[in-house]
Amino acid sequence: MKYPGQPKEPPSWYRDRGPSHIEEVFAKNLEDLADAIQAEHWFGDPEKHSRYRVDFLFKDARLVVELDGHEYHSTRDQLEKDAVRQRYLSRAGYTVIRFTGREIHRDAQQCVSEVRTIYRERIQRSPLKHRVLYIDYPFLRREMLSAHHFYRDLHPGRALVLTPLDEFIPHAVQWLHEKSFIAAFIFCSPEDLSELEALDGYVKEYEKGEVRLNVMPGLIYSLDLGEHLQSFSHLFDEYYLVADDPVYVTPLRSVLPKELTKGTIGVQSRKQLPNGKLLRKGNHETAFAGTDLAYVRWQDIWYPIASSMGLRPHEM
Predict the structure, then answer these.
(1) At what angle do helices 165-175 and 137-154 cross, to 10 degrees?
(2) d(C-alpha 156, C-alpha 47), whole Å
(3) In this structure, are residues 148 and 309 in contact, taking their beta carbons and an 8 Å threshold?
(4) Is the pTM of this model over 0.90?
């Protein structure tokens, strides 16, 4: 599996070395944070020996604290392994805070105070439900270009300009009627990476919350998206998808509830699949017609595109 997302127990070969000195110092200063934190938590795939160990985890805030002692984090190989693990954790939706052993020895209380501030900020902004936004970037780019040509012809007197992806995303979230903290994963082909790589790890703040962006290039990006969605489904409660391709029917359907429920939209009552939303093509064009994803709440992808260009609802 390319994305081993499920947290696991330590591998059978692992022998607990006990907390290091700086871990003991940090733990003694936790005070009110002690009940919220888990020490020595493991992530990974059993076939890869569950190799990702983190020092301290605030699971409810998606926050990891790593303490870099000189003994275990000084060589080039060790630093490279730290970087690989941090990228993995970031793509699993976690924020990683790192402290050196010198920082802990110099002022452990200040380090804990910094963690406390970040933890409280994330808890205050974190919704009761954790949401994830998956974006098929080639699909979105094609629709942006088509919508731009259409609205430019419809409003010849307007200087309509397509916005960058990070500026578009708040409009997408707004048209999904959502807010607060959302983890976003942008799947693209390797050819798209040059225009997107600056967004990897970027946090887009807006009036109602923030979106944390992760860029995921791959030759078979659509299959990668589906696999990632299923692998990390245990981390999220609601799933949003910007795409319109039959390849996404099975993975998205597998993470949504098994049974349809009765929902009300305006004055109409209809069956729906909860915990998911789509930005897709209209009913006469969508590839999801005739599948269970037709019961997922949706908006036409052109609406947030038009909104991001400055058009008002009556102009779309």
Answers:
(1) 80
(2) 58
(3) yes
(4) no
Q: What gap in Å lies between CA 103 and CA 80, rounded to an integer?
A: 21
The three-class DSSP label of residue 130 is: coil
Q: Please choose, from the candidates 237, 232, 228, the residue with its C-alpha nearest in 3D space to the C-alpha of residue 127.
A: 237
Q: What is the DSSP string of 250-264?
A: HHHHHHS-SS-EEEE
pLDDT digits (tens, 9 = 90+) for 142-187: 999 999 999 999 999 999 999 999 999 999 999 988 766 788 999 9
Distance from C-alpha of 142 to C-alpha of 147, rounded to nearest angstrom? 9
Pair 201, 96: CB distance under 8 Å: no
Domains of the chain (ranges; CATH) run: 21-125 (3.40.960.10), 131-315 (3.40.50)
Contacts 24+ apart (CB under 8 A), 144-149: 144/168, 144/305, 147/301, 147/302, 147/305, 147/306, 148/305, 148/309
Q: Any residues with CB less than 8 A from the CB of 78 and at least 6 apart, and which?
A: 72
The span from the CA of 172 to the CA of 308, in Å, is: 9
The larger pLDDT score, comparing residue 242 to residue 232, is at: 242
